[in-house]
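To: structure desk
From: M.T.
Subject: fold request, one chain
Message: Could you run this one when you get a chance? Sequence is below, nothing fancy, just the single chain.
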Amino acid sequence: MNMQKQYNSEAIEECSSGDLYMIEEIDSENNKVVLSNYLFNKKRTVILTDKQIEMYAMAFDSAIEKNMYLFVEFNEREGVIIG
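Reply: Done. Structure tokens follow.
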């Protein structure tokens, strides 16, 4: 039970830091991913490599087929997707 409380506080801390963003759109032609954080009303566009865009596009399509949302951790300071 103590571990459950620790996990919940870590999850809340991660969400409140604004690091979790939902992938809203993938533009494969321009290698851009549009990320949204609705909790903090933020939207970011990230330019990725061909290999990265292909990986995220496959994951995004798979999530859509399952009626799921795809979230990534985004470092705002450096402007990069962490995971």
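Reply (cont.): Residues 18-81 form one domain. Let me know if you need anything else for the meeting.
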